[in-house]
Amino acid sequence: MMKFLFQIVLVVFVPKVMAQEVLTVDQAVQIALKNNYDIKIATNDLSVDKVNNSIGNAGMLPQVDASLTKNNSIQNSKQTQSNGDVRQLDNAKNNRLEYGVNLGWTIFDGLKMFARYDQLKQLEKQGDTQLKLTVLTKVSDVMTTYYDLVQQQQLIKALDTTIVISKQRLKTAENRFTIGKAAKLEVLNAQVDLNTDTSVLLKQKEQFGITKIRLNELLARDLAVDFQVIEEVTVDDKLQLEELKTLTEKQNLQLQLALINKRVAELDLKQTKGNRYPTVRLNTGYTFVETESSLGFTSATSSRGLNYGVTATLPIFNGFSQNRNEKIAKLQVENSSLMVEQQKQTVNAQLASAFQTYLTNVELAKLEESNEAIAKRNMEITFDKFKIGTVPTIEFRNAQENYINAIARNSNAKFQAKISEIVLQQIAGNIKF
User: Fold this and answer.
1) Fold for domain 28-61+109-278+314-427?
2) What are phi and psi of 137, to 5 degrees?
3) What is the pLDDT of residues 53-103, one digit of tens each?
4) CB count in 10 Å sphere of residue 308
5) 110 — phi, psi (to 5°)?
6) If we measure between CA atoms, which residue out of 268, 12, 291, 349 comes closest to residue 156?
7) Could you say which residues form the signal peptide (predicted)?
8) For the segment 113-140, what is each residue's pLDDT rounded down to a tens digit?
9) φ and ψ of 109, to 5 deg
10) Which of 66, 215, 286, 340 is the most buried (most CB within 10 A)?
């Protein structure tokens, strides 16, 4: 029987494996890190945050402007001088040209610029953490989809095997019918069961193909790329809750984002309080002015030179807006603190629940592995007895179905255990890639 099953595997699977790429989970993760669109978008968002993080954007640097103003007018003018003389000119032209360079520099604004610069640093840190969270999420999605393919591939392998066995059963039933040792009903039942097995296999292959497309989508590559996945799933059954808790406190990215958001809210409050203080601004420039007039004591003037000064403003009353804005900012800081505590509780609850699921799935994986071995041995014995006619068809069919179901449960149990492991590592921010 073992030799028979081995030959089935060789016939069914070896040609396919040789013809297709064998994609490992590490290779899939690396392709996703390079190609995935969400990761690329998050990377660009981080680049924007890095560009924004500058002392200039915080308002610490002076602003220099070049300006040019040219005004022309044509008017009918009439002037009455102090001695009574009247001067009148139609279509009198007046021209004024002014150009120069001006510098303005805010040297004190209630320390808001420093708070703003610290906030820009926090926003860059937020973007970096968001990128890490996106990467972690996508890597987890890739690994989950990949191991789903592994368990589906194992199920297809089992279904291929059962179809070969069903064909053997049909051939045996036909031979027994030919020599008069079985009724036609036995042949028909064997044919119906073979058709049923074939239908189940076709449906499973359809699902396998759809999941391949999903993985190719996550890898952001041609959806038609065909590949094989590894045959077995290795589950780390040595994870410890206390170690995971320690890692979670240090590395959980959602918790880190909550802490960053709290700091951003605190800096918003600091900037709002800065509006109570005066703003001092230095101004200087070099200006050229030229004027022409068709009517007046002077027909043309020109000047050039340096101007400089200082401007100071102090808010005195703005309709209680300052008090209102500070109160709102303080409430936002309080909310951000509450959200940090809420996130801690949520993460700890997720970790505890996921670890309980992990322990259960690990035990189930061990149990189902044992059940598969028992079901396999039972089918081998039943098949040998069926060939010599000592067991009825229904008993053999039950043994065959029990074996396939045991394979499916074993494969699914390993898959669920692996997914539980991935979830725990994701919460702890400890997925390796």
Assistant:
1) Outer membrane efflux proteins (OEP) (1.20.1600)
2) -65, -45
3) 999 999 999 999 999 999 988 877 777 766 777 777 778 788 889 999 999
4) 10
5) 75, 25
6) 12
7) 1-19
8) 999 999 999 999 999 999 999 999 999 9
9) -140, 35
10) 215
Rg (CA), the chain: 40
Any idea of the CA torsion for 324, 330, 331, 337, to the nearest 10 degrees? 170
Amino acid at 312: A
C-alpha distance from residue 274 to each of 60, 106, 174, 319 (Å): 15, 14, 94, 17
Cα–Cα distance list, 304 to 253, 283, 299, 351, 433 (Å): 60, 17, 18, 73, 66
- Tokens 């119906």, located at residue: 192
The gap from C-alpha 105 to its chain's centroid, in whole angstroms, comes to: 41
- Residue 116's nearest CA partner among 187, 36, 61, 184 is 61
Residue 166: phi, psi to the nearest 5? Answer: -65, -35
Q: Rounded to an integer, what distance in angstroms lies between the CA atom of residue 261 and that of residue 253?
A: 12
| Alpha helices, DSSP H, located in 20-103 | 25-35, 37-52
Question: DSSP string spanning 321-375?
Answer: HHHHHHHHHHHHHHHHHHHHHHHHHHHHHHHHHHHHHHHHHHHHHHHHHHHHHHH
Bridge partners of residue 304, in order along the sequence: 288
Q: How many CB atoms lie within 10 A of CB 247?
A: 17
